[in-house]
Amino acid sequence: MFSRSKPISRAVSAALFIGLSFAAGCGLLSRTAPVPGADNPEVVASFDGELFTLEDFEANYAPHSGSDADPAADSLASYRDFLERYVDFRLKVAAAREAGMDTRADILEEIQSYRLRLARPFLMEKEIIDPIIRTLHERRQEMIDVSHILLSIQENAPAEDTLAAYLRMQALRDSVLQGVDFGELAFRHSQDPSAQGPPDARGARGRLGFFTGGDLVEPFESFTYDTPVGGLSPVFRTRFGYHMLMVHERRPAEPGIRIAHIMIRHAGPPGDSTNALVRAEALKIQLDEGADFAELAVEHSEDMMSAGRGGDIGSINYSTPVPETFKEAAYSLAEPGDITGPVETSFGIHIIQLTERGELPSFEEAYEDLKTLAGQLPRTGLAEEALAQDIIQTRQGHIDTTLVLNAFAGLPPDSILILPNGGLDESALADTFFVLGDSTWTLGHLAETAGSLGNRSGSDTESTVRELVSSFVTEATLDAEAARLEERDAEFGRIMQEFRDGLVLFALMEDSVWTAADQDSAALRAHYAIQPEAYQWPDRIRAISLQSASDSLLQDAAARFDAGASIADIHALYAADTLYTLHADTTLIADSSGSVYDRILDLSEGERTEILALRSRRIILVHDGIESARPKTFEEARTEIVSEHQNVLEERLLARLRERYNAHTFPDRLVRAFREESPPMEHSDTPTAP
Questions:
Q1: Which residue from 436, 542, 633, 659 has the fewest beta carbons nearer than 10 Å?
Q2: Using one digit for the tens of pLDDT, what is the confidence trace for 198-228?
Q3: Which among 213, 214, 192 has a CA at the least distance from the CA of 203?
């Protein structure tokens, strides 16, 4: 896991070091200085005057072990290996800081870049996305059957229109409380068009049917889950207008099901189902006698979309917009293969077969899907606005909305969105309108974002400006909070500290080990001279590849090879012809590489492969014999020699650091790690070299 070769990217390498990529190595313990912690059974290591306790070990081991398994199940050898590597890591970081590497301009710039990339997503996920995901998963354990009445009102409607709509809805609510039928009121007054739909359609007479978490807009969904069965919600507003709702039933959530059906359309006017019913009943008798459902669907179903698939209409759940009678019948089926019907809907007569029943996912299984859903729901944007307002209130921020409205007064909404600086006079751009802590934002900052408002502008200047201010303030506040996230969030502070440690450790290793080893030619040659026979090429197959973008050209080349032509002759033939391109290369192959070249390992000398795909080209491989084993030259072995010399330099570095920082470990004490009751210790007071 811990590579000794020089990584390509400092940022990537730093991340690896964070994952406990403090490279393994052994050091010599100082026997002249006192041994801090030797008389304290809770201390498992000491270095640079710091005592590293068993509690510290447990806190660091689990996050960096690379496993989700119970750390108590790991072996004592794993604990010891981690302890030694952790101490080496801390020593390298201490040495890097002592050398001033943590103040280098390039490292500070990379830390700031990483912070900017990570902080805002971290803040959003922790404060907004995760709570929404948990609420969604909790609500998705239950389905709720709900009716509603809607009185539409635009979000930026005049106050008098808004009040009139609210009072009208309140009057309708009073009528329900006095015993008037909710469905009748919905049919007569609701401005949701579905309320006047066919009796079995979703939304008819206000009856929306069963819903679960994520299916409804907020705050409609919250009012649904907060209202008891048989209860009536208060009047509330969404972006669509004013609502009230009634809850009819709550059930444990049902998983999705996959179904197939055979549908016979009504032969006469709606409601005249006699002929269709007779035909459906005849098909049901055949199914009861063992006929194949899919075959009958292909032959008899009048649903052209599904008939050709044996009646398969895919997966549905309780929130799928299908007729309630159809849905209830489908969900009444217990086992795949079960059949029910005939069932009548406005579309015709159905016979339904259950083909698959799913399972409700656990929180962990559902997490990524719920995260995607949360990112698409309007409630996420509302939660961002609410979080921004909480931050502004907590930090006593100030927004001068009057200043902004006066500055934009008289400008048409469209001009605000398309003109440079939002149409503002240049003299106003430096005026401060928003203050949060030590940060200030001017009208110039606000005007720069006007074009991003898009179609969210209002019908008049004031509503457009208020929307612009709200959007800007939300984004600016969340960015400002992300910038100070290390101060307010211990977990984020730990992540950033680990990244800093990884960067300075990388810089130390680059200067003291990787570059030093690569550039010390005399030491590398001396290393090679000690045991040159250790560097050997094994027997390798000479694989000749013929490559071209044309199948026909390779087919012709293969035919010539099979007829006895040599590779040299074939290549010369096509090299002389500018109409064709044929590349020939030789590769020496010792063992499997997981590539198309592995096909050569199954051939004997003189044999070839068929035409194979290699990225966008085509290739033939020819076994051209064995290249016998031989010693490697210094140049051929250089990569291995550099890696080995890096190991030597790293071991020397760690020995010096353990001496300099008076580092000691007490690995025998790790027998108590992750144990509620500590067993007796043996030799716990004796510091041990790794």
A1: 633
A2: 887 788 999 998 889 999 899 999 999 999 9
A3: 192
